[in-house]
Batch of 2 targets.
Target 1
Amino acid sequence: MSQGFSILVDTSRCTACRGCQIACKQWNGLPATETRQWGSYQNPQDLSADTWKLVRFADGVDSTGKVYWNFFSDQCRHCLSPGCMAEAEKGEIVQNEATGAVIFTPKTKDLGFKATLEGCPYNIPRQNPKTKVMFKCTMCLDRITNNQVPACVKSCPTGAMIFGERDKILDLTNKRVEELKKDFPNSKALNADEVRVIYVVKDDPKKYYEYAAGK
Amino acid sequence: MSVTRREFFIVSGLVGAGMALSSLGVDVGPVKAFADELKIDKMKSAKTSTSVCAYCSVGCGLIVSADSKTGNIINIEGDSDHPINEGALCAKGASLFQTTASNPNRLTKVLYRAPYSDKWQEKPWDWAISEIAKKVKATRDAGFVEKNDKGQVVNRVENIAHLGSSNIDNEEIAALNILVRSLGLVYIDHQARI
Amino acid sequence: MTNHYIDLKNSDCLLIMGSNAAENHPISMKWVMKAKEAGAKIISVDPRFTRTSSVADFYTALRSGTDIAFLGGMIYYIIDNNKYFKEYVENYTNASYIVAEKFDFKDGLFSGYNADTRKYDSKNWVFKRDEKGIPEKDPTFQNPRCVIQLLKRHYSRYTPEKVSEITGTPVADLLKVYEMYSSTGVKDKAGTVLYALGWTHHTVGTQNIRASAIIQLLLGNIGIAGGGINALRGQPNVQGSTDGCLLFHLLPGYLRVARASQPSLDSYINANTPTTAEPQSANWWQNYPKYSVSLLKFLYGDKATKENEFGYTWLPKAEDGKTYSWLDIFDELYAGRIKGMFVFSQNPAGSSPNTKKVVAGMAKLDWLVHTNIFNNETASFWHGPGMDPKKIKTEVFLLPAACSVEKEGSLSNSGRLSQWRYKAVNGPGDTISDGEMVSKIMLKLKELYQKDPGKCPEAILNIRWELLDDKKQFDSHKMAKETNGYFLVDKTLKDPSGKDIEFKKGDLVPSFAYLQADGSTSCGNWLYCGSYTKAGNMMARRGKEDPTGLGLFPNWAWCWPVNRKVLYNRASCDPTGKPWNPKKAILEWKEGKWVGDVPDGAWPPMSDKEKGKLPFIMKPDGVAFLYGPGLAEGPFPEHYEPVESPLAKNIMSAQMNNPVIKIFKSDLDKFASNDPNFPIVCSTNTITEHWCSGAFTRWQPWLLEAQPELFVELSPALAQEKGIKNGEKVVVSSIRGDVECVAMVTPRIRPFKIGGKTVHQVAMPFAFGWLFPKTGKDSTTNILTPGVGDGNTMCPEYKGFMVNVKKA
């Protein structure tokens, strides 16, 4: 399966307004978790059963002495061959045919969490500690099968997230990388052949997030 | 490269409207935000109205959806037709749902704090308006300045101040302006100053 | 904004300075990024590397409070390198005007200063005029007393080296910004300035903006697509509330408040209606009598007659020269002279500077009426930190308000676009709209004054209040129509082409050009005349047409004035009416009329010496002010140190601070400048996830989750000096108090080299307080800030005050 949908996450256009992070909560009715200030704009600190979309913040100084502040709007990559599904033999995790969305069903409570997490190169699956059900981004399957773009994509003001058919998104991705390379030679798309949620970065992915390009 | 918001929808228009999720063979338990019926299905019969964001001054358009059965707001998201935000919203805008009745922290009763009291009391509107008007009148009549030191007629009140607001509608501001000028206030200011 | 949000896409260079647009106006970045993708350059100048800086093509830092030095250097660079747009400057500004002999500037002070009154006599700053009153000019710019020569002389002191010493910005960075931005001083390039509270929150705030106006005029960037000076304003309807003038010094539509020295309507009008001898000046404010009389008719209806000066006597008269601003109000509260206060939908206990004085003042009130949708530190001040309810007599009425989607009405964005929003649902419980609350109070007061006249009852009884719907509730449509204005008698007038046009009593006035000074029209705000007409509620329109392709969307809602999207747009054309840049033509004079945006006046371009008018129609002489004798501190912006500074001496002159600012004298008004106990510069700021003092947003779990607690951003160098680790609790202190918060150690802030010494700067949001959430000690940032304001506006100096930071 290679058609279906994709999302281009163009980090070079992201201003970290976090509309996507909250729009995800709003649409999906996800509760807030209790957080504390820990020396970062990034909160909650990590994805969780109640946080499926998280803007990660990373600042630093590059080798030329220039300051950078990179934003990485993290979420499930909806892999073409999802590693998380390796052990999910009884339909605990399903891949929706028409869209390519990878969906955790309530049956994930019966799956081993450690194995599922280890199967994911991007550190995405999270488990509700009480119910043991696992959660993550659904690509807004309910919306995209009703002619609406995912809530996060809709909220994005700067075109840092674009949703569409996979082939069109791949075209856009390639064009964008070429454009960016003029000013930022390290620009690249991350694992575009393997994932549906394709991140474009203009620098070393490790300067965005440890698992940006996978384990 | 430039892809407009409109094109996002065209690109995404191929799955077909209204396809039931169950027909995709998917149990979308985690997507379920509202008890018995999926939000996406409720949205189809919801009463929608347009609004404008209540925070910064960009003026982003919103679509507010109220459930056709309960009348409660179930969703607020960006208005894709709006020429400024084209559907987009920032963190605050995307959270506007939590300013509505869905938020249990909302004030829903007139609260009154009596002199030297350490608590709030709930009060009815009629009582509050009557008490407020009496106090305004007493203070105004006691402090009214008909003439200044130079003997110029000034008809002003210097012992009552008014602050606010850039956070209410133009028509409400016009009403407030009438109120404060008719009282003779001169200490009048609001957020624009700060 | 002179322009509007979508117009940002038309720019070739965006100077974002005094604004962190990505943080505080996130959706504006949609249009900033559109410009960037079309090849525009973004420049971010900010003490911190911000969300905005992260997408900028060039970023550099300056010490908080030194913007005039930074911009002054740019003014000199532009003139000295001949980068200014000669034809524009010559025709549309006062560059060629000759300034009279009395004007002078010496060591930080302009001529005419009185140290006792802390005021200037601006008679020393006038232009030389001929016997008719027309300013004398030198179009060759050679006369040493002409404005552009004086401008050059003034800013020749602002060399890159000197500016760098003051701002801490490296010389190379200054030159890079100057070079990048001044590249827009040509016909086919547009540069725009985006600013916000980063420029206004200073004792020299107005002059910060003046300095940018001078730059924009020199570069020919005012009136054009992708240009302008764009204030990104902070609240949903702060534009509307400013236009509506809930302000001590103004009446709706920027009409002046009546003053004690103006006992009659005639004296009020004469004092406020400018005249001009310049034959080609439209001098739009000559219409002042029409707008003010129509306002009086709006207020008093039939009770306002020619015989009683349309009720002018009932208006309160403010004392001449006296300010009654925010800071004055809390000073009066603290002195015990103000006994009652209304606070509609805002949280001064969190958002005022020097909040300890604010709450101490509120504790002296007899009563406080507050409306809001959530509880906050203002309504609950009586049980806040350090308060003993048993000792506080203040009666507090906390009125539950409907939120934005629970009522109907209009609000105006920064681009002056007034948009209608609808009521989606009823509010919960006993909530009602603020408009309905005002209506209830007004009607009750009328009832009380009817029964017992008290003092000056006419002012209250004669006020018109015909604003209720069938259910006897406040009707926003009725008020919107009243604001637009009505004909009160049948009237035949001339339309712009000179044809007769008939109006009937009760007709809505289609445009302010038809308002009258004889009492035959009413209008609540002349700027909004045209917003609700025979054609319907213009603010509710949803037309998507964009005929120019420049993003004007003339049929979407309605903007003042008269749906004009770009102010002073006739300056986008040369004196014959040809656009400077035909590729982005906002306007063009074609076959005897203007095509494009709504022009600022239908007159021909100025090359028509008989009928043509100059483009800056709100200025008496029709041209824009490079030399601006109207401001309190002088005609040219000059660098002064903030009231609290890390320096002992102003590097620029012997005058340390803005010479005209008002200094309050209460025991809680303390300042610490050049004080070793408070060696660190601090600025307050807003964050995306919270709105202002956080009074709404802290109660929203999703936003609180995203930004849960107060923090201070500091550099690794300062953290090391103080032994502070990222994420640790620290105490930030100023001479006014202490605040506890979490340290955010980040390379996005760097120390400055100022006048040879290292100066640290830190930054704090002010979105938190003690009421909710309870995370420890009082986290009201504004405990720290000084209660001192700008020389013209009294806007407080929240940015660039002195603190210390230590581990908690």
Target 2
Amino acid sequence: MNPVNYLYLAALLFTIGASGVLIRRNAIVVFMCVELMLNACNLALVAFSRMHGNLDGQIIAFFTMVVAAAEVVVGLAIIVSLFRSRHSASVDDASLMKL
Amino acid sequence: MSFPLLTATAALPALGAIATAAVPAARRTAAKWLALLVSLATLGLAVAVLVRFDPDYVGPKGNFYQLTESHSWIADFGVRYELGVDGIGVALIALTALLIPFVILAGWHDADPLETRSSRWRPTQGFFALILAVEAMVILSFEATDVFLFYIFFEAMLIPMYFLIGGFGDRAHKDGEEVASTQRSYAAVKFLLYNLAGGLIMLAAVIGFYVVAGHFSLQTIAEDGLPDMATSTERWLFLGFFFAFAVKAPLWPLHTWLPNAMGEATAPVAVLITAVVDKVGTFAMLRFCLQLFPEASKWATPVILVLALISIIYGALLAVGQRDIKRLVAYASISHFGFIIMGIFAMTSQGQSGATLYMVNHGISTAALMLVAGFLISRRGSRLIADYGGVQKVAPVLAGTFLIGSLATLSLPGLAPFVSEFLVLVGTFTRYPVIGIIATFGIVLAALYTLVLYQRTMTGPVKPEVSAMPDLRVRELVVVTPLIALLIFLGVFPKPLTDIVNPAVKQTMSDVQKKDPQPEVEAAK
Amino acid sequence: MENLIALLVVAPLLGAAVLLCGGRRLDAVGHWIGTVLAAASFVIGAILFADMLGKGAEEREMTQHLFSWVPVEGFQADVAFQLDQLSMTFVLLISGVGSLIHVYSIGYMEHDERRRRFFGYLNLFLAAMLLLVLADNYLLLYVGWEGVGLASYLLIGFWQHKPSAATAAKKAFLVNRVGDMGLSIAIMLMFAWFGTFAFGPVLEATGETSEGKLTAIGLMLLLAACGKSAQVPLQSWLGDAMEGPTPVSALIHAATMVTAGVYLIVRSGAIFNGAPDAQLAVTVVGAVTLLFGAIVGCAKDDIKKALAGSTMSQIGYMILAAGLGPIGYVFAIMHLVTHGFFKAGLFLGAGSVMHGMNDEVDMRKYGGLRKYMPVTFVTFGLGYLAIIGFPGLSGFFSKDKIIEAAFAKGGTEGWILGGVALLGAAITAYYMTRVMLMTFFGEERWRHAPTPSPAEPSVEPAAETHGEHAEPHPHESPSSMTIPMIVLAFGSVFAGAFFGIGDRFIHWLEPVTGHAHGHPPVSALTVTLSTVAVMVIGVGLAYAQYGRRPVPVVAPRGSLLTRAARRDLLQDDFNHVVLVRGGEHLTRSLVYVDHTLVDGVVNGTAASMGGLSGRLRRLQNGFARSYAVSMFGGAAVLIAATLLMRAV
């Protein structure tokens, strides 16, 4: 199969993620959209790796996964504590840098 | 690989700072003693540096830096962890290490927490840790022979200084309750902004220097000579460096942060500013401006000399007009820094030796005067000259030490500052007679502001508010006596110091390719 | 023998250190320590003197090199001493008179709780003054020069609780500093032109230097001398300096420190010899001061201030003589020594009078004291006869020679200078007779002393007076005070004759200063006779005014000149208006400028930055999604730009 198709898919996923980040208010959804964008990047990296025949892209993809996992941990914790304090998960409610 | 003495001299106070900060809240006194011991141990290491230092050393390939250490650090940008000292650096390291124990002792009670605060509040630990941190950074900037490394410490010392100025001030009393000074945060921010602005311009010049030279190492330059620079490039880079140092030094008209900072800070911190931190500025002029950009330095000399001259006269005149003891000392310092800068840029051996001695002597004399002033202020809770009078009658020892500090400030012969001031004047005079003569007016003005200060605070009828003032306590005497002894010793016998400084000055003079003007009669023979 | 020279300085310095650092436990013996160390200095001086007399005239100079003081590339300052006949004369005068005044002070300061400190300062002064005259280079001389200034500052302001004393001390130091500036510029000139400032090389090099340069150095040295020796235009401090305790006035402000300017000029004789213009300036300064001091001395009612005016005037004579060159150097020093004796004696006498009169200084409240203080009267009287130049006494020999030398200068200058010196002699006789008559003769005006007169502002209402309203009980002072007065009176009587007859003093000093015999246009006998004649006129005038008529207790308003002279010929008013007021305005406006202009520029920049950032702040609304939009927008722009660049 033509690896360029994977790139199209990655671009599509990235766009979906980006518009989700911009449009949706719910913090959880925004968060998941960010994940989507990350994974789109991963897909693109792996595809490029395949295209160029070296392993650099795949290695970076692994790094990204690890970072994403860490980010999930921190991000979810923040969202949970936000929700606890103001009973809402809207990102627009958290416009001040304090609780 | 020998013992890294220079690193140790700086690392000890740095580690001491961390340890002091970590002392639990309840053990305040332990933190003080820890800080004092660390500073004394640092002094010991500085003495070791002095002992190991050989004034007549000539290194391989003309590298005159001694006790060098060199490690790769950020290889991609050619930044190296490179330390080394010449005579000027050694003298200033010794001065710094010498003054810090006195600063700590003098500020023993300055940062005791207020009763009302919670038990986890630890200002004392913070105060002493910050002082040690400043010491570490100042020592490192005297040691660094890598331009970028120097830049890092030059900037980093602003952070602890900012907190020292903004966080701790004189305790003003009003209606029996302590009130914080509103001017203090203004002074701290002003200090930071001025110095940051200078530092950022210097950063641009540092990067520019890298582009031209391809490395940051002064030792490489000492061995291989300066990189080729276009004249205009050299001048721009020189200005970038000089601006930062002139802010720090401080040179007129970039001086206005100093009176605010010194006025609002506690006396020990004020000593830290003017006697230690500001010296990095004048030191860097000698080391970086003159050695890296000799041609540009000569090009800028006339303007700088005039600015220095304005500093001398202007600072002295403003000191006469002050009503606040600490601001008066601050303006006096501006005048003295004018002398130092004038000596550096007069480009004569006498001027530069004098300027280096001046840095050391001014450090000691200002410390003596300012710390005694601090003791005085802490007794009465006011910085205004008009609130004092007749102190001599109630506290003769305090008044006596204050007088000696004042006399040192006005450069009385027999005390250390005279030697350096006269050398600077002579060194300037042989090349620029008019500037030398005008600068001599500074000595009359110095007598005016110090004696007016002494007269208004110490003599005359005893004011009721000061009538119960206690004389100096043992701790305070321990602070003042060695400083005064040193002032007298270096005034009578400055040879140990000049022996260290002379070869370094010779080196600088040959770097800028300047020769002393020859006396006419001898030349005729 | 050479190694003893340093001890001359070290002994009193040690005394100062011990007394000032020793604390209260030395209070009981402090004055003895001080006196013994001062006397030790004198004894060492005497030993060296005896040794010197044993040698031939050309081999008398001794040097001692202690250590290298400021060794810097091309700049060599040593701590080294040089003892020749000129220095020796000063050493004996300083340590001798100094020791006597230490003894006197034991009695005079008996009731002062800070007596130990007083002796510490006196010792400090001796050390600095000896350093000044023993130094072998100008920089070390400068140390002594400022050192005596410091000691003088401390001693004038000894009674610091009196604001007037503190102000006077500060004024003395400041005016002296102006003179010191001249000295330091002179040293810088020497260094720039000769590459050294040691006496030997500098004075040798004068032969190869142009006259213009020597004139410049000479004028700067003259400025220094004016400051230290209270010569016009820097004379204003000396009158105020009388706020200090009387022994201080006797030692520092009459016998020794104020003559340092004369020493400096004589020591630098080679420079002045090569610079006639500078010499002329010196003689003019001397002549003007001579009259200035004498006129001021006539108008003062404060006994010490009258004597201070007289000191100024007598030093004017010395400076005048020093400015005459080789024909005058020896006589300048000779008058300096005899003046040291009789003026110190006069001041000690004044102190003794004040001691017996509850520290009253206004002569209008004295009168008829000769019966109550016989010793003081006799010693003071001998000093008086010496200063007015009564034939046979010290002042007669030394002053007469100066007047003769002034005429010998030749030409119109010679006539003018000689005439001024003669006129000065007449005025001297007048004001000294006035002092004598008002103090020791006439009716006893102190019996019904009224409250201090408001018409005379220069008289302090004696803050240290013990019982201000009690009628004084004049009495003779204790023997510790009278013995020094008697010794000094001996000097006042016989020193002149000893020095003058057979030209002893000339032979003694000639190897150092050189000497040339002047040839006055009139014979020496004529000069002598006219000197005696003007003296008699002066005494007669004073007697007519103060001896035959009663002296009013409240000073009469007086003529314009009298009123001006009471205010030091308006010098202080001039200083006040021009320097003090002007300086105040200058500093105040500078403080304002610093605050508004220099700081304002920077703060203005800060304010405009603040305004700009206030606007930029609106962009930072805190909504995460709007940040995200700008981030994506920015990324899109970057990518577009990259692609575009690649396409191009």
